[in-house]
Amino acid sequence: MQSLAGQFRTVQPSRAPSAAPTLHAAPRVVADPAPSRWGYKIHRWLLSPLFRAALRIGLPAFVLAFLVLSFLSNDAALGRFHAMITDAQTAVAARPEYQITGIEIYGASPALQAEIVETLDLSLPLSGLDVDLDQKRSALLDIASVETAHLQLSAGGIITATVSEKPAVALWRGPDGLVQIGADGAALRPVAYRADALDLPLLAGEGAAQQLDSLALIAAETGGIADAIRGFVWVGDRRWDIVLSGDRTISLPERDPVTALRRLLVLDQSRGLLDRDISVVDFRNPHRPTIRLKARAVAALRAARGHSIEGFSQ
Amino acid sequence: MTAFCQFQRALRTMRNAALQRGVVAILDIGTSKLACLILRFDGSQQTAAGGDVGSLAGHAGFKVIGAATTRSRGVRFGEINSMGETERAIRTAVQAAQKMANVRVDHVVACMSGAEPKSYGVAGQTELMGHTVDQTDIGRVLASCDVPDFGSNRAVLHAHPVNFALDQKSGLTDPLGQTGTDLATDLHMLSVNEDSLHDLSYAIKRCDMELAGVAAAPYVSALSTLVEDEQELGAACIDLGGGTTSLSVFLRKHMIYADSIRMGGDHVTGDISMGLRVPMATAERIKTFYGGVVATGMDDREMIEVGGDSGDWEHDRRQVSRSELIGIIRPRVEEILEAVRDRLDVSGFDQLQGSQIVLTGGGSQIPGIDGLATRILGRNVRLGRPIRVQGLPQAATGPAFSSAVGLTLFAAHPQDEWWDFDLPESHLGARSLKRALHWFKTNW
């Protein structure tokens, strides 16, 4: 109540007569203190909460929206704006902090290293912001002999590729020489000499790489003759031949080669089949295994039977 | 009777809307001064439970948050004389008060000081439907009141049920729940010129506001100046305004008579202006500074500079003694008070138990008027200042603001009036039945 006392408004339309009249008082204009009708209305609008909110929030929002939309509707200005953004991006990407100057590769053989470098296809120096590491990594994984790959941009502008190669399970001798073969039958990398990969079994024949499963069954049964084995030949895309040292060959049947091999091993143990001078043990017909002797043995057999060596043709 | 009822009901609806908004403006459009108060209701205007009035006599529910006053323009004898001038004066006061309160007001409660009020005592009687009096019985007894012929172009401003009588028991304020067979009531109705009421409503509408209540100035002045026992035992409140002198008589907390005399402080100023040949503004200033009604020997020696700016030295240096001034003022004040006495005699005021007379309004500030009034009106005269309401500026606590302050009380707690009760259906239905019959006649 006390605080309001000072604010109480008395609006006087006319001048009050002065207590001490002056001689030559200028005639003062009697002003009407009433607000104009529009002044009164606007004052009331400004006091209404909704209007104030509209003025405080709506008007700036409208102006902002108008400016943004008018900018977006101007193609030239928009083009300049895009160019500005592109320039800024280029300027940042070109900074030395982002430059890639070298490639480091870990876990790859020299031949694979060359292939990785070729696959990454980086024309150094290059900005790190322009390299899509995920895409490059999937490209590395597309290389047949790569099992896992990690790509990393490390400090000093080095891109580091850490890869692991797929292990070779066999050698395949093809028209172009020796090739290592992975577990899935894919050709991994060429090998110059058999001696470079003595621990791997040697395969030959068209389509042999795809028959690693059946080969594994056969190889597991080779017990007694394992040391003599020189390689396996996939014949006619249907059955296996086992090539032994001393130019001996075991022809296994299409069906159930393991049983045939066991029979052979039993024969070998009981009768010393493979110690004899034979060139081919033919199990293609399991009911009627056939042996082909070497020429010298044939001659010796014939001699033993009293036949002349002449007149016998192999 | 339903026509004015609808108007007053519409005002009540508007008042409810204003209370919901929480802000209402009080507009006292007087002949010399226009006061605007802005009230904020804080929602606790209900009186405390158990019939207790609560703190500050139950008037703690609102607070005055804005106040402004301006010289009134375009009003004569408490009636709007020039619509444009009055509208501008209202705009001035309302804008200043809004600026102070920093809220926008859309609802106005105003008072009428002129408009030739006329009091009517009306009686009604009905038989009870049941054994005890309930709300419908009160509605029926009010509907049974025989409404006098007000004459054309009159509107009812107030219709207070002053008294209820149940069989032989009279003097009941609230007969609800009592047992009896016959219920009678006395109604005090106050009618005013309808045109003046419409002028007031229109002037407020032109200021983009809505009328939410209208009351007679003597009624609201008495609300704010008469203390409770005066209202109970019988008292007259005389509001000496600028253009009108209005009076109301209260008994048992209800107004039983109200009237208005078309004479006031402005006429005193006019007399001084004519007698001393000075402008009205100078006369007003001389009246407020040196005015009085009882001359003493000292006043012969006290000379007043009348002043003037005509350029004639002799004319501008005139002096009058205070006795001369009092000699001009006193006859007019006596005339006013004698007119008041005549009206009080008409009302039968001298038969009331307590014949307290309370002088208020700007004219009651004339020194010595209480002594003069005692001689003319009777012994029990006192000067009244309005009750204190919360937040009212110190400058607005004088007797000139008694009707404005009374309007705040009226806006916060209006007394029950005729239109606050539900009328019985038979009373409302007569016309619609007639209309239905008319429809059948014209369409079949």
Structural description of this entry:
The complex is a heterodimer of chains A (314) and B (444). Chain A has 314 residues and is an alpha/beta fold. Chain A contains 9 helices and 15 strands. In chain A, the strands form 3 sheets. Chain A has a 9-stranded mixed sheet. Chain A has a 3-stranded mixed sheet with strand order 3-6-5. The relative contact order of chain B is 0.15. Chain B is globular. Chain B has helices spanning 2-21, 83-101, 135-143, 194-206, 217-225, 228-233, 265-276, 280-290, 297-301, 313-316, 322-347, 369-377, 402-412, 425-443, and strands spanning 23-29, 33-41, 62-71, 75-76, 79-80, 107-112, 118-127, 154-166, 169-172, 182-193, 210-216, 235-240, 245-251, 254-261, 303-305, 319-321, 356-360, 381-383. Chain B has 14 helices and 18 strands. By secondary structure, chain B is α+β, with helices and mostly antiparallel strands. Chain B has a domain at 118-193: Dna Ligase, domain 1 (2-Layer Sandwich). Classes of the chains: A alpha/beta (314), B alpha+beta (444). The interface between A and B is large, with 35 and 41 residues. β1 of chain A pairs parallel with β3 of chain B, so a sheet runs across the interface.
